[in-house]
Amino acid sequence: MQEKDKNKLEEKFKPILENSSHVSWKPRTMLYPLPAVMISCGENEDDYNIITVSWVGTICSNPPMCYISIRPERHSYEIIKRTKEFVINLSNEDLAEATDWCGVKSGKDFNKFKEMKLTHQKGKMVDAPIIMESPLCIECKVKEIISLGSHDMFIAEVVNIQANAQYIDKESGIFDFQKANLITNSHGRYYKLGEEIGKFGWSLKKK
Question: What is the reported pLDDT for 61?
Fold first, then answer.
């Protein structure tokens, strides 16, 4: 942003900020931070692709279900729509560059596994591949597709999870998310997760 444009913005918002603790904006997607994950899909090596998404989340505990939202014009959209399968691969700091690259390049033009030197392996319960370098791979089968507007939502059931053994605590057998060094997306920028500040229910124990 040029200095003159910056000054214009400051002049525009200065009176508002000086007289109000909050400023109203037009409706937009402002729920941050968000996951930054790589979605792998395809039935065979010639079909395999990766798309980076942040519109992803959990929607049910039992049965375990999640969703991803993808624009219909994306290359992976038709693959997932056809196969009804995908894998959510969590990303960490080591995979940050690959995560970004797979989000800005199209599988129509590149073999993303080859370009980013990522290793694929067929899932245990799906034909879609997992990314072996990922700390945690969530295998999913699509149950429903909902057209929303700019994106279509793929509602899916989690059918298997593959965790990288190096991130599993040997004593408890629990996946160590802190050690996995996962990353998030906040308004187009990537961040590492910070330190733990508490755990579920800790506020009650403080009293």
Answer: 97
In the chain, which stretches have pLDDT less than 70?
Answer: 1-19, 206-207
In a domain, 9, yes or no: no
Neighbours of 76 (CB within 10 A): 24
Whether 21 is covered by a domain: the verdict is: no
Does residue 128 lie within any of the structural domains? yes
When divided into structural domains, the chain yields a total of 1
* Alpha-helical regions (H) of the chain: 3-19, 75-83, 96-104, 112-115, 177-180, 202-205
Q: What is the DSSP annotation of 140-167?
A: EEEEEEEE-SSSEEEEEEEEEEEE-GGG
Closest CA to 116 of 95, 87, 90: 95
Distance in angstroms (rounded) separating the CA atoms of residues 171 and 187: 37
CA distance 150 to 143: 20
Q: pLDDT of 118-174, one tens digit each?
A: 999 999 999 999 999 999 999 999 999 999 999 999 999 999 999 999 999 999 999
Q: Domain of 164: which CATH number?
A: 2.30.110.10
Domain residues for 61? 33-192
Query: Would you say 116 and 98 are in contact if contact means Cβ atoms under 8 Å apart?
Result: yes
Note whether residue 179 is domain-resident. Answer: yes
d(C-alpha 31, C-alpha 161), whole Å:
26
Q: Whole-prediction pTM value?
A: 0.88
Q: Which residue has the tokens 């913005």?
A: 9
